[in-house]
Fold each of these.
Amino acid sequence: MTQTDQPLDFLWFIPSSGDGSYLGSDDLARPADPGYFREIAVAVDRLGYSGVLIPVGAACEESFVLAADLAARTERLKFLVAIRPGTATPAYYARLAATLDRVSNGRLLLNIVVGGSAQELAGDGIFLPHDERYDHASEFFQVFNELIETGHSTLDGKYIKAIDAKLGLPPVQQPRPPIYFGGSSDAAIDFAGGLVDKYLTWGEPPAQVAEKIAHARKAAAARGRQASFGIRLHFIVRETDDEAWEAADRLISKLSDEAIASAQEVLTKNSDSVGQARMVALHNGRRDKLEVSPNLWAGIGLVRSGAGTALVGSPETVAARLREYQALGIDTVIASGYPHLEEAYRVSELLFPALGLPGPRGQLRSSFGAHQVFGGGGHGGNVKLTSAS
């Protein structure tokens, strides 16, 4: 079986800072609302997604607390939850992680977010230069992993000091929940090579993704390790390519030049993230050249920090583009779309069949076997057909 024959692991996204239908506009916007996040989680659990990414940041709901709330309302869904080294001790994060894994019955995934905004990190009390943050993170996860795998750790390091630290209750997953991480700098990829189980990239053109994967593979191999690979992408999938591109245009139809300029100034001045710089370089704040690779659209990155590209097209077109990434070694997709509840349905109903993914779980029979079509939801039910159509 080749890489592209393997089914993708498909996760969705919880927009814990808010959601909407138009970028750069309050029209049809949805504020951060725990009730809405529950709707999304319950829907994607049923629709066949394997998990959800919960982001971290000053503008977001706290990821561990939100994950615990959503875990109690879902059955199979896994939760990719961020750890930001330095905002709490390794021992405290180990207790959080072990407890969340226990109360969710082994549904925790861990996402390392070292941070790319010096301004936001300063608010969290972290004042290390870019590359040095990864040295700090290496010591942090030495203690964290020892605690969550063995229950005890001691380290007298340059950044982390933990003397006879203990964890009383182990996680469900052994030796620990899987660790995910994304970073584009040399320091980040070197850090990833010694630690992470799944290296993540934002949605760059395939040639650029191939270079990053090769770099990450080399870094892991130098330490006698192997890593798997995932990609973070938005999706605009419609029944035809033309409809999908119309939806992409609509998403930024209320986005002003002033809003773009303001967002780009923040993204370039307040961030020392190499990954963010690579996202900005795909469009450079311009509306006129947003298709940066076949069906890869950079319009979201005009205002959104982090992942700023979407695959746009019909199910067959988008599936073909995803297979190109699979051929490079990608086996996991962390997806999203605006608004997230409706687009979770579209991606499951339209794209999953084209990818050979099973789709909704636990669907009940809708008839005793006679071929029926949707009849509008009236009291008479569906329409029975006398012959196949």
Amino acid sequence: MRFPRATRLLIDRDFVALAPNRCWVADFTHVKTWSAVVYVAFVVDTFSRRIVGWSAATVKETVFVLDALEMALWQRDRDQQPVTAGELIHHSDAGSQYTSFRLAEHLEAAGIAASIGSVGDAYDNALMESTIGLFKTELIKPQRPWKTLAQVELATAEWVDWYNHRRLHGEIGHVPPVEYETNYYTELTKPQVTTTI
């Protein structure tokens, strides 16, 4: 069964947010290992391109995309930039994990609006497709063969840290996502200079 309120496309391929925690995109991919297929889910903040949450599992059930969402919420709380109810959109494709009652209820309880792209249209989640493409190109393909879930998890944690803190992103001025967000919050806290005539 599907949750009716989670079928709206709220972002209409506009992947540029004006501030952090306004629009997150989510999706997952698979990695073949010797022991099993590993599924890796990501949540990306469209403002900074920062990967705010991720999760890996050997089953592609709703719980593993929920784990990525939970990490994203925890990460923002830890950074003292928590999500404000009613301000955030969570966008994904129409996969069963993202249209499940369990995820929809979780989003609603957190005050997060659900946005679902149209079926079979990669452009509706293009930013996430791009991030997964980088993950595959920069980490998964060069280091294969992969042996276990634990090996993929460790390598993904290291890659996400590099991606967020050191990788330069052209879309945000050739700085890492964490630096881009830090600059944004620094500008917000600068005292306003007023001139008198």
Amino acid sequence: MDSGDTAWLLISSALVLLMTPGLALFYGGMVRSKSVLNMMMMCFGAIGVVGVLWLIYGYSIAYGDSLGYLLGDPGEFFGLSGLMGPDSAGEYALEGTVPASVDVAFQAMFAVITVALIAGAIADRARYGAWLLFAAVWATVVYFPVAHWVWGGGWVEEIGTVDFAGGTAVHINSGAAALALAVVLGRRKGWLKEPMKPHNLPLVMLGAALLWFGWFGFNAGSAYAADGVAGIATVNTFGATAAAMLGWLLIERIRDGHPTSLGAASGIVAGLVGITPAAAHVDLWGGLAIGFVAGILCALAVGLKYKFGYDDSLDVVGIHMVGGLVGTAMIGLVATEAIDGENNGLFYGGGIELFGLQLVGAVGVMIYSFVLALIIGFAIQKTIGFRVSEDVEVGGIDESEHAEVGYEFGPSGSRRVAAATSAGAGAGPKTEGSKA
């Protein structure tokens, strides 16, 4: 065990966990005020459901001994058997140079945010209980096996597809599922007919900032060591994201006449997504190119929903699926063995083979996730119901699903506080020092 590597991965785990609350702020600011709590609760709900399942059997499915290159043995580490304490010799199980329990925690955060990302596509119209059920089933049959495909010895890793920190397993995976659920739940009432603008852009900017902050743990932490690889991943995560923001703003300036704060925040996320699979495989120029291209293509891709008619509420498909595809594919163009010691993309004299392998892995994950999410979503819709009623959607999903609202504008603040004050009006005069 290396104490420096262990400390870095513990810190990275905390940074990646922070990304999900950051995502809740990012998504929460983008919806209308009547849906802000529901959107944030969908993100936090993913922490609860996926976190528990990951600890019980998810880690084992992802990282247990491979069964036909499709999934890990679910029973090998069931309940984290053999990973949570010292053996008879007083030694802890290791994953590389860190305790296996630290690896469990670090990878748990990836599982959580992957599911939370999907929620943005179905904002304003999903029943909360149905969402939690979907999160549990999709994580079990899609994310856990796909994590095994990419990092646990499964077929994607076996054929030679490169994915440093989650372009396929996290972003293409969640983006494809988001597209499937947008199809299952259909369009929001009034979509394309009435304005559905973000209700709180400062909240969006704050969320984007927290995502960028946490993403250094996401990418640099994936080096599993406090070393030069982590340094390369950190530099590329910063540079590519900055370039992507500029690329997105450039498109807005040319297309719409104005660079916007929402565009800056979205460009940041697009760059983070694009560089994730490539962070430790490209040099400075490759990282900047990936970021800039991701910013431009994602800015253009978010408009596809209007052309094809699917209501991806918060552009999960346009940013995460497209950004993940850009970053994963461009490894085949700009990866260099001068950085990772083994991979040269087409532009660095490596030929077309790596590019082809990148596409095979990316498309395989995309199709699998889309089809399974479509099946799960339709099954939930036809049984317990996935979409809220029209009255609930119009009136506001926060009050219906959570008996709360994000903002109270009445003269007494909260209606419940006002009611309690009224009920206690005959309780006698306030004593000195009591609260007003």
